[in-house]
Structure formats: structure tokens, C-alpha cells
Amino acid sequence: MLSGIIRPTAGRAKVLGFDLAKDSAKIKRRIGYLSQKFTLYYDLTVDENIEFFAEVHQVKNFKPRRDELLAFTRLEPFRRRLAENLSGGMKQKLALACTLIHTPDLLLLDEPTTGVDPVSRRDFWKILLRLVQSNITIVMTTPYLDEAERGTHVALMHNGNFAVVDTPQKIKTLMKGSIVEFVCSDFRKASAVAKKLAGVTEVQAFGDRLHLVLKDIEKDFPEIRRRLQEEGIRCDQWRSISPSLENVFISLTKKDSEVGHNA
Predict the structure, then answer these.
(1) 128 with 22, same domain?
(2) Is 162 within the bounds of a domain?
(3) CA 72 to CA 93: how far, in whole Å?
(4) Angle CA(159)–CA(165)–CA(170) in degrees, nearest 5?
(5) Same domain membership, residue 71 and residue 138
(6) With CB atoms 3.0 to 4.6 Å apart as the test, which of 24, 62, 132, 171 could cross-link to 54 if both were Cys?
(7) What is the rounded end-to-end Cα distance, in angstroms, of the chain?
(8) Are residues 113 and 212 in the same domain?
């Protein structure tokens, strides 16, 4: 909708100062859109895909810009390779290069790193950070909250609604209490024991780790360790940690679910 592809059913919005309902053509010329699914042409080379999108956006004398983008995305050595023979990370870089060929002011990215290997994901983020430094505004959706922490502003969504919109730093302040991370011998039993303790306001599971949100860490932490030992649960690691966006998101969605259940 923000890219002008479908019309809004209600309400009004402006993108780069242009009315979404009246000026969609003007908006499209000034934005770049990268979809979650790879939508380029497998039977064209890297060079040919970029050339095609340059023609779509009516970019004249595009070759200097293409060479600049190939160097920027480190795709220069692969410019004659067919798109179908690129790795997942390289396909996303090519899609980004095609999106940038007309030098947009706003970039809309739909989960660009989903399914991409960790090394390519890191490289992709390096490219995005360099784009921000060149005064391009980036709006990005991602299921990875560690990625969201890199943004200047974050909107956490739950059930199609914004739960909170603010800077990552301010969102983290919504987490009340202290968080202690435990790695225990019996994960499920430790979780059940922790949930019964008065000083524990929340229990969050992260793989083989438990994050316990405590009202008063100095008072409640020794009691937790004592109770776990009494239950025969060995804890090999424990440490106090700062809240992450993931901690806040789990807390917000849990409270929302509890309100809905009680209602």
C-alpha cells in the first residue's frame, strides 16, 4: 500500500510528502521496493537484470550507476552469472542493486534477510548501514528482533496492530524489573518451579535458557537458587542481563494475551 501498488480501503497517508491516493505515480518514481520473495529473472545475468530495471525506471546512461552498485554490493566478479546460479545472499544483493538503480529517496524492504545465511545477512546489513549514511530512508520489516535493534525507530506489531513505536532504547525501558538468565539441567522443571515463586514476575524461554524477570534481584535471586537446588535442579550458568527487544516483545504479547483471555 505504501508503495502505491494497492489502494487504501480507509484513512489517508503521505509518502515523501505525496498523497498515497492521488499521487501514487509520483511516489513510485521516488521509492525502491524489495519484496521478500526473489522476483528477478533467473534466465538473465546480473548485468542484464540491472539493465532491465534501469529501463523500467527510465534511467538513461545507467552504466556508471550499475558499475557503482556492483562495486557497492561486491557483485562485480559475478556480473555475467545467471541469477539462478547465485546464492541466496547474492540474490538479495542483486535485488537490492536493481531496487537502487534509479536512486530512490525511500527504500521499502520486506524481510530481506529471511532465509539468508549468517555471513550474507551480516554483509547485507553493512550495505544497509552505508545506504543510511548516504541519506536514504529505509523502512524494513523483519522477524529478527536483533536486527530491529539497529533501527533508529522500531514498531513492534502483534495481531496486526502496533504494540509500541519508539526508539529501541526507550522500548527497552518498558521492561520492569531485572532479568537473570539461567542454563539448567532440567529446563521444564526449572521453569515450573520459577513460575511459582513470588519474586518472579515472568518466565521467558529461549532455547535451553530461561530468562526470569525479578522484582528485586538482590532479594529474589538467592531464593530462586535455593529453591532450584532443593528441587535437584543443577544450574551451570546464571547471569544478570540487560533487556532486549525480544524480552520486551514477549512481555507485551503475553500481557495482551492475558487481557484477551480474561476478557
Answers:
(1) yes
(2) no
(3) 10
(4) 130
(5) yes
(6) 62
(7) 33
(8) no
Domains: count for the chain: 2
- Strand 209-214 and strand 178-184: the pairing is antiparallel
Confidence (pTM): 0.80
Q: Is residue 123 part of a domain?
A: yes
SS3 content of the chain, % helix, strand, coil (to 5): 45, 20, 35
Residue 200: CA count within 13 A, CB half-sphere: 22
49 in helix, strand or coil? helix
Question: Are 138 and 200 contained in the same domain?
Answer: no
Strand partners, 109: 34, 140
The set of long-range contacts for 127-134, using a CB threshold of 8 Å and a minimum separation of 24, is 127/72, 127/73, 127/93, 127/96, 130/72, 131/100, 131/107
Are 124 and 112 in contact by the 8 Å Cβ rule? The answer is yes
The Cα 40–Cα 95 span in angstroms is 7
